């Protein structure tokens, strides 16, 4: 009861409340059309700004680029084949068989042969991979195991004799294969693998052995049911005539047949076990492999970086085990590029479903007025609009990564190889972690309906979750990025040259070493805050500050803890540094994409989205900027207000922005994301007539 309210007022208040509830119930019975604009927009202070006009066709064409045609061909094929679309309820065994039928359909019926693009045109290959992953993530992973991992290992680690022998069989799916690197006791530490391949000079063969249970190959895709070959990573052991008797030449890759090509029976000496039901990706038949003195011809060594002659002599163009190992892993970086790209595809689907639902769903409103779209609520905008902006940012950055990877495959430039290795590690880690969190946010943003399996969030979340682990654990990959940053930092002060992605460090480090400008720290106009130079300088200043401070900490702790102990003491600091650097790269590539957009309306829309991405990230770390006086309190407040305004402006064109992803209905096949027939379809699923 309010202080000035009497007991007699209570019945009147109850009547008023009851009337209001009746009015609200009547609105539920005769709601506005879901597509009708909300009448409450004029209540928002920032609603006075005019809405941008967005040309969907131009924006979509700019985003999807030259590979749009092949993706549409894939979508059209699966749209015409409902029998190849994954149902909501499906057993593990049924899902595995469906995935192999999807793969066979893609290659045999749709006549899409992706294998040649792995080397010739990686951008085309990754476009195909994103499209098939949109159909079913399990299908996308099985596709990647066959062509990128098993096939890619033959192309990238083998020589002409291997390509001539295996290319056609891999291409037409006669030679289904596996990528057997991970062991029960070793995943991230590949140099610690224990499987051995011992050369027998008498028979001219390698003998593949699993010396203990910890060396069993584990989580091997395609192994449990469909695989006929495996690229097995093992330590190459050569007999010697010295006191040791053998010499360990480091980890190499070998082609090992695991099933008979005609009968599909497991070959002698091979043990295959099923890893069973998983949290997600149950369309992929993961298995475990044990080798008991399995003999393979000497020619089955993938010998691009090291070879063994008939008399047992080892030759290599690379002088050390570490250099050969680095070269081998460098050729496998395409897997990380593909995962980053595929993760963005998953994010597009989840954001599309959540935003469409939020535009259609109406809930609550002022007394005696229609309910409003839930995307008109500021809280919903703050959940989804920065996520939509991030999706665009990630899209353009992964496109840049694919371009750099393609250039690397053509030129084999040593500096570019290192740059792509670090950038792919950072983007794979950052994007997959962001997408994993966003999937939960999207589910929550769709309320109870988001919990229904038909609306896809559960499947997407479970299938995508492992993206944070395979092709390199995300925490391990971020440490690689931090290590490269520290190397670049050291080289800078020794007069060395910085590789392409790191060039900004030279200028921003000089800025950091000087004091923040007290004048610009207080500038708060919208023009200044939306200036790409201010945004990029802020991102890069933060990275430079983190880099300088962690370098100082490592020097200090190394004196007492040693290098390993110092690294562990500063580990969280190093991870933050790596993430900050990747965010700087993402923003830089987004700004470039905005500036290069040829269509004026699309460019205006992208500029708005880019500003939201930049200022939302700055606001989320505003404490750092304020603590070092890079941003004054009045400027921090202005950033917060402008971010809210941009959220609303992006909300006004959110429908156009998700439509530009150009995803077919069956890909986003969630009733809550459909148009006028949504609830009719939804209630039919529950059995209502």
TrEMBL record:
Keywords: FAD, Fatty acid metabolism, Flavoprotein, Lipid metabolism, Oxidoreductase, Peroxisome, Transit peptide. The gene is LOC111316954. The lineage of its organism: Eukaryota, Viridiplantae, Streptophyta, Embryophyta, Tracheophyta. Belongs to the acyl-CoA oxidase family. It comes from the Eukaryota. It is found in: Peroxisome. Residues 330-485 form the Acyl-CoA oxidase C-alpha1 domain. GO terms for biological process: fatty acid beta-oxidation using acyl-CoA oxidase; lipid homeostasis. FAD binds at residues 182, 221. The keyword Transit peptide applies. GO terms for cellular component: peroxisome. PANTHER family: ACYL-COENZYME A OXIDASE (PTHR10909:SF378), ELECTRON TRANSPORT OXIDOREDUCTASE (PTHR10909). GO terms for molecular function: acyl-CoA oxidase activity; FAD binding; fatty acid binding. Its cofactor is FAD. Residues 178-294 form the Acyl-CoA oxidase/dehydrogenase middle domain. The active site is at 471 (proton acceptor). It comes from Durio zibethinus. The keyword Transit peptide applies. Residues 531-674 form the Acyl-CoA oxidase C-terminal domain. Its main location: other. This is Acyl-coenzyme A oxidase.
